Amino acid sequence: MLNTIWPIFIILSFSFAIFSGNIDKLNQNIFSSAEEAVTLCITLLGTMCLWDGIMKIASETTIIKKLTKFLSPLINKLFPELKNDEEIKKEISMNMVANILGLGNAATPLGIKAMKSMQEKNLDKKTLTNSMAILIVLNTASIQIIPTTVIAIRSSLGSQNPTAIIFPVWIATICAAIAGITATKLFIKWGK
Amino acid sequence: MQFINFISNIAMPLIILIIVMYAFMEKIKIFDTFLIGAKEGINIVITIFPTLVGLFLAIGALRSSGILDCIVHFISPILNQFNFPTDIMPLALIRPISGSSSIAVATNIMKTFGVDSQIGMMAAVIMGSTETTVYTIAVYTSSVGVKKTRFVLWAALIADFVGISTSIIICKMLAM
Lengths: 192, 176
Hints:
The complex is a heterodimer of chains A (192) and B (176).
Chain A: H1 2-20, H2 23-60, H3 63-78, H4 86-100, H5 104-120, H6 130-141, H7 148-156, H8 166-189
Helix pairs in contact in A: 2-7, 3-4, 4-5, 5-6, 6-8
Chain B: H1 2-25, H2 30-64, H3 67-81, H4 89-94, H5 99-113, H6 118-129, H7 133-143, H8 152-175
Helix pairs in contact in B: 2-5, 5-6, 6-8
């Protein structure tokens, strides 16, 4: 993807700069952008390490197991076709819990494991089942309790209150998830 | 508004407290575990660094050359009809496609307009509430070798659209 987008960006803007007389600004930008990347990464480093450390602790406790139990009624509602597949439902809820806690590294392998288990029972191996579709849409909605990366960026840019976005993020992400699930359920109903 | 601020402020300390207390009661080697996780954090930052260098150059060039202004100038009459802030548009377009480039675009927006400005807040809330849709779909479908993804891309893009719109509306409300 980026192999196409990146050169297009460069070619378009560099040639535009030459014709529009903004070449000075572009020149400045060439050096400052590399510097900005360094500054951002150095300031991100602290918060990222701190949070990944905390979340590693969480993944060693029984918190994940407890949250998984807590989610099971919701999973039953979302995946009506997996009524008797307790093992798959467990994998799905662990994937969701990892997502919610922001454990991206743990969430993806868990989600893929659930996908593989569902594929085993899939009759048409080339087409997604309804349950697989719901799982994917849930994962694209990114329900996350603490949006760490953004908070880290905000604090690195000197925000007065970097965590002020947490509550707005919850509302936006829940609306997005509800919209995604509703759309998926409607598509299934219409037999797409 | 004060209530919203209160929840936002208490969320992070409270979660850290709960996790550490849990781990303490369950007698986990807390600090050793913390160090293992923190080391993984270093790796994440190091892996995104080259991407950031490349994309900061490309995005900075789009801005400094004036071509972005030129494009926005042509699209803004349409977006204004829906009350959609044009400065957010580059982020809304790139967010579903690439995670690291949307980090770069969002950072650029926060820097240009101020991290605590309304546009800066919008960029942050959009980043926090949406995912790299296209990438996620690709990873999940290719993991099981499925070719027909049916409606999944559309459903996910609808979710993204709602997430982005909600972010914009909320930030406008907060600023009032």
